[in-house]
Amino acid sequence: MSDPMFDYESTLEACARSDERAFQALYRQEAAKMLGLAISLLGHRDPAEDCLHDAFVQIWRNAGRFQRSLGSGRAWIYSILRYRALNQLRQRGRTVTLGDDIADHLIDESPSAAQQHEHQSDKRHLRACLQKLERPRRHPVLLAFYRGLTHEQIAERLTTPLGTIKGRIRSGLRALQECLQR
């Protein structure tokens, strides 16, 4: 059962000190949710279980690299899982379907449970900023940062010149940054 007050940051710092109990607690807290996300990204349980295993191995090995000043512990572990899943997809050459509602789905998966109330405002703000971007800039940004596609893959997928895609991502990120600073 998930504990909404789970302290991801302290748990990761304990893992960095080779505290196996902390690692087990982290696994119990997040493994089921992480497996669900991996299945949704990869499409099948077997590769998702492999991805989850690889992610937890990396979490254990690299816990010392976690820095609470750079973000939440929960976001950090999910980024490891996401990169593992995206690497598997790239190796298989699979492309992922992306609808316009992907921002809501992906943003809802990433906040820390212990800080859910605090993150609700941030999520709404990010969602609002993403929605302010016109689709030609929003779609490439989402494909790049939430699905891990390369600029070349995005250009091919959207049948748009590579230079145009790079420019749209760059200007989209600038617009998001300006919006989020308000």
Automatic annotation (TrEMBL):
The keyword Transcription regulation applies. InterPro entries: RNA_pol_sigma-70-like (IPR039425), RNA_pol_sigma-70_dom (IPR014284), RNA_pol_sigma70_r2 (IPR007627), RNA_pol_sigma70_r4_t2 (IPR013249), RNA_pol_sigma_r2 (IPR013325), RNA_pol_sigma_r3/r4-like (IPR013324), WH-like_DNA-bd_sf (IPR036388). GO terms for biological process: DNA-templated transcription initiation. Residues 126-176 form the RNA polymerase sigma factor 70 region 4 type domain. Keywords: Sigma factor, Transcription, Transcription regulation. Pfam families: Sigma70_r2, Sigma70_r4_2. Belongs to the sigma-70 factor family. ECF subfamily. This is RNA polymerase sigma-70 factor, ECF subfamily.
